[in-house]
């Protein structure tokens, strides 16, 4: 493969070019990134989107937490402490809690997630990932009726119809369309964009809609009705003149378009999972795809956000049988989203301690939830300062997986990919995996003493 002009210039300046790097930002997990670095400093990236580029460069910005911190009772001031002190304090908090909450997991490695779930079980706590506030309804629907899925590689090589429903990949997954769905040349789609038809269904004319041949502007919260109407017209039955704000003729046109293609793919996002109907929307979307397979080949893939939220669901499932909102407080794994999800537990004041890792509920949860979080003993593990670190009692910095640490992650199509280490982490900073391992070992010791007493 020919080198780019940027690579040639980098080599002339004796800079190192690291190839085949995986971007640890979104669920697309682009694995063709090239990193240009001078010694241990990242100078530039090739192939990465603007957000991915910032993710790599954020490893060396001034917003990093460089030492563990402790916030005093009734104080906003933090005091620097050692890792040994912070880990001991965290272990004491978790070992003494009756029902601790473990939340996050979506931006760290599967190896760290595995240890974290063991820690939650040992402490009799609740462990939940960010799916509970994004694609949890997708998971619930798939558990109910199954799902006809495929890999993004199959989409690239075979799909001649792409439907983006309730998502905006131009902003949320910037390279998704160029790598897998709309523009790349595949084995059976040799002409790329010219061999595909793109449909966008959304209440708003998004930037993704501007690139589509068909834009269906569904009424807000009426996705279920539109999907039901599509299923009806596909079977050749009649529907009202207008459904979900869409004229009957346009729905019939869309149904005929779907039936005329060789391989269709429905990508759906939080515009469907977090609106009226929630998991019922996904249930009927799966039923629509199943109906389409009577006429042609059709699949669907959720547009997962965090780069390893799919991995967290996978790890939880193969460890204990449930993909999120898993409760160990009765001594065995129990799963009841709406009761055992993180935000619900914080809202009802049902946990007496919390550990947050690889996520930022302080920026996304309701104020009432975070007010309670700020009142109880809490631990936050994160490389950067966030709203959550600002209200936690113990804060421990960690390395960034995919930049300073190796680790396994699952792409949005549930394909596991190994993330590379590109640069060495700042001196003395531990990985998520090591921090959790040390907390787990100490909690085992404390629980052993407790059992002996």
From TrEMBL:
<keyword id="KW-0560">Oxidoreductase</keyword>
<dbReference type="InterPro" id="IPR016457">
    <property type="entry name" value="Formylmethanofuran_DH_bsu"/>
</dbReference>
<dbReference type="GO" id="GO:0018493">
    <property type="term" value="F:formylmethanofuran dehydrogenase activity"/>
</dbReference>
<feature type="domain" description="Molybdopterin oxidoreductase">
    <location>
        <begin position="64"/>
        <end position="441"/>
    </location>
</feature>
<dbReference type="GO" id="GO:0003954">
    <property type="term" value="F:NADH dehydrogenase activity"/>
</dbReference>
<dbReference type="InterPro" id="IPR006656">
    <property type="entry name" value="Mopterin_OxRdtase"/>
</dbReference>
<dbReference type="InterPro" id="IPR050123">
    <property type="entry name" value="Prok_molybdopt-oxidoreductase"/>
</dbReference>
<dbReference type="Pfam" id="PF00384">
    <property type="entry name" value="Molybdopterin"/>
</dbReference>
<protein>
    <submittedName>
        <fullName>Formylmethanofuran dehydrogenase subunit B</fullName>
    </submittedName>
</protein>
<dbReference type="GO" id="GO:0022904">
    <property type="term" value="P:respiratory electron transport chain"/>
</dbReference>
<dbReference type="GO" id="GO:0015948">
    <property type="term" value="P:methanogenesis"/>
</dbReference>
<dbReference type="GO" id="GO:0016020">
    <property type="term" value="C:membrane"/>
</dbReference>
